[in-house]
Amino acid sequence: MKVAIQGELGSFSHEAAEQMLPRCTVVPCARSAEVFDRIQRGSVAAAIIPIENSLAGTVAEHADLLLAHDVFIQAEFLLRIAHNLIAAPGVKLSALRKALSHPVALDQCRDFFRRHPSIEPVPFYDTAGSVKHVVTHRLPDAAGIASRHAAREYSGKILQAGIEDDKRNFTRFFLIRKSATKSTVSAGKKGGTASTPSYQRLIPRGANKTSIAFKVKNVPGALFKSLSVFALRDISLSKIESRPMRGRPWEYVFYVDFLRGDDEPARNALRHLGEVAEFVKVLGIYRAA
Predict the structure, then answer these.
(1) pLDDT tens digits for 50-82?
(2) What angle do CA 79, 82, 84 make, to 5 degrees?
(3) Catalytic residue among 171, 210, 214, 230
(4) Are the beta carbons of 126 and 102 closer than 8 angstroms?
(5) Final residue of a structural domain among 168, 197, 215
(6) Which domain holds residue 204?
(7) Is the domain of 251 the same as that of 163?
(8) Whole-number pLDDT of residue 195
(9) CA 170 to CA 177: how far, in whole Å?
(10) What SS3 string covers the chain?
(11) Does residue 89 sit in the same domain as residue 186?
């Protein structure tokens, strides 16, 4: 089974993929857009993407890509993230002038950079890719920030382990697959129904969590009415966040996770939400990690 990840072999996404799908073949991609394009083309069966970190928050690009593509979240997984400062063999900590890594990883190591002001944080496309780069080119004054897996993969030397700001540092990953058609509920007349749920076959047994995205109409009380569809049915929201809508300045999409699977209260809530929102997209229904 071919599974796409954003980043190189040895990345945290690689580690998550191996734990979620132990016998999969990992296909590294340099850019997140390539991951989603591969799913749409069918050149991979699935993808593993990081969606949220407990310190740095939501991976905004992936939230936008989930909305823009016809994919479906089938599972989530929580991975403990331990960052390590990794250099080419022979390089010493005192010689470092820059540390390369993915911007989200750099953001999780602010305390390290405060303690080492002479080391500049440099954004790179991937955590494991940063280690591959500094080791391959044997850079004398640079290190990458990545996992122990990356150090093993590229024969790098760990100069300092566990440099993340908080030891309770976790990243939430999604397993996503291609969805046959858009799983949307459009705003319409009362009693309107969702489009044919082609994603039904992708919902795992025991699913108890749903992720959606929706846009409210620009009228007084619109958000209150949207959230009331869950409160009226005693459905608990585990997350709500707004994101700017691409191509429509000063308009926003709300991303919500709620703790119900594909049952009657959840379906009724989505139908009700479709009556008061401009649009609703079901991003996935899965078992909570």
Answers:
(1) 999 988 899 999 999 999 999 999 999 999 999
(2) 145
(3) 171
(4) yes
(5) 168
(6) 181-289
(7) no
(8) 45
(9) 23
(10) CEEEEEECCCCHHHHHHHHHCCCCEEEEECCHHHHHHHHHHCCCCEEEEEEEECCCEECHHHHHHHHHCCEEEEEEEEEECCCEEEECCCCCHHHCCEEEECHHHHHCCHHHHHHCCCCEEEECCCHHHHHHHHHHCCCCCEEEEECHHHHHHHCCEEEECCCCCCCCCEEEEEEEEECCCCCEEECCCCCCCCCCCHHHHHCCCCCCEEEEEEEECCCCCHHHHHHHHHHCCCCCEEEEEEEECCCCCCCEEEEEEECCCCCHHHHHHHHHHHHHEEEEEEEEEECCC
(11) no
Active-site residue, 25 included: no
Determine whether 124 is an active site residue: no
- Of the chain, the percentage scoring pLDDT greater than 90 comes to 86
Tokens of 23: 């016998």
How many residues comprise the chain? Answer: 289
Nearest C-alpha neighbor of 89 from the set 138, 160, 125: 138
